[in-house]
Amino acid sequence: MDTLLLARLQFATTTSLHFLFVVVTLGLVTLLVGMQTTWFVTGNPRWERLTRFWGQLYVINYVLGIASGILMEFQFGLNWSGLSRYVGNVFGAPLAIETLVAFFLESTFLGMWIFGWHRLRRGVHLALLWGVALTAYASAFWIMVANAWLQHPVGYRVRDGVAHLTDFGALLRNPTLGMALGHVLAAGLLTGGMLMAAVSAGHLLRRTADFALHRTGLRIGLVTAALAVSLVQGFGFAQFGPVGEFQPTKFDSGPTADARIAEWTTRFGPGDYTPPVLSDVGLGFMILIGFLLGGVWLLLPLLWRDWAIRLRFPLWLTLLALPLPFGAVILGWLAREVGRQPWAAYGLLPTERAVSGVDPGLMLASLIGFSLLLGGLTVANWTLFARHAARGAADPALGRPPDALDTEPRPTPTFT
């Protein structure tokens, strides 16, 4: 057994599963802000019920997503001590900021929002949700700052065999950051929109109660997905410029890539510096799914006079298309991360030097353990999500008035 291969498999598994939680979080929190803001402005109780229904699903995904994130961070110390030792002084700064934002600010705002229904003024309660959304976006920003540095190291100096941060501003100006961040945020919005549209379509197909409520959810979801897929495509193709300039070996084998490989061969010795074919495969299928999801624009005219609901087949298309954005985000991460190989930090630290020097058997046990834990969290998340989504929006537990929590008469106590 190869320790490096096992470590890479574990990283791919944990990161991919955790990222499924992330895109749902980013997408749903944005939609929640829009719905609760509309409720605050209009006072229409329908928007309150929509906020409560989707807020409950958001909370389920957030709580289990935090647990998956903690497990993912553990693996850095267990499996990638070489990475921590060599680039920790640079890579650790944005990760530390992200931890403070995600595990303290965001969680605090969300907790106050959950328990603040009917206890806080409506404006304060809305401000808390805006705080949740802004800190969620800030968390994504700092994660992408750290990842962009691995893609294209900047603002550092190697001293005594260790990279040291010399220019914090260079991390924020990294040319591989901007378009990649926009691509990820748009992918989250696309996933959230498709999720809302698919759940609403399922209720409309079942002809459950609250027709008007789920009709609104379908419209919001499809319009959001249509706008987001255009942003995903735009930010995605815009990345080819920075990638071609700063990572010429990722998807190209032209003169620039050959020159870079020759340079690395001189510095690090002979080796295979060409990324695995999997990166090109992931890129190709991701682009294909992106174009397929572009077809959501064709469904928008059918929202007029509820033709999408009357014809029913658009509802089935929406429901069956739900796995596509999740598949696309996994393929996108494979293209981005596998395309960086064989480097942990592109052109600076080979992946084989970043892995911890542990016994292969121990690494295999770690892979199995982490995969079971993350797989269990993922299954639990989608089981709970599907169960509460299927119950509908009649009376979600989130935001239920305190006097409605217990409608059963309490027996009169007797004393003997």
What structural category characterises the helix and strand content? mainly alpha
Residue-averaged pLDDT, rounded? 90
Strand content: under 5%
The counted number of beta strands is 4
How many H/I helices? 15
What portion of residues is helical?
A: over 70%
Output the radius of gyration: 24 Å
Gross morphology is globular
Regions with little confidence, pLDDT below 50 for 5+ residues: 407-416
Order of helices and strands: HHHHEEHHHHHHHHHEEHH
Terminal CA distance? 72 Å
Q: For the largest beta sheet, what order do the strands appear in spatially?
A: 1-2
Total number of domains: 1
Descriptive overview:
- By secondary structure, the chain is mainly alpha-helical.
- The protein has one domain.
- 73% of the residues lie in helices and 3% in strands.
- The strands form 2 sheets. The protein has a two-stranded antiparallel ribbon with strand order 1-2. A two-stranded antiparallel sheet has the order 3-4.
Write the layout of secondary structure elements.
Elements (H helix, E strand, L loop, with lengths): L2 H40 L2 H35 L1 H35 L6 H30 L4 E4 L2 E4 L2 H5 L5 H29 L4 H28 L1 H7 L8 H14 L8 H17 L13 H5 L1 H8 L2 H16 L4 E3 L3 E2 H4 L5 H32 L25
Antiparallel strand pairs: 1-2, 3-4
Helix pairs in contact: 1-2, 1-4, 1-6, 1-13, 1-15, 2-3, 2-15, 3-4, 4-6, 6-7, 6-12, 7-10, 10-13
Care to give the gist of this entry?
With 416 residues, this protein is mainly alpha-helical. 73% of the residues lie in helices and 3% in strands. The chain has one domain (3-388).
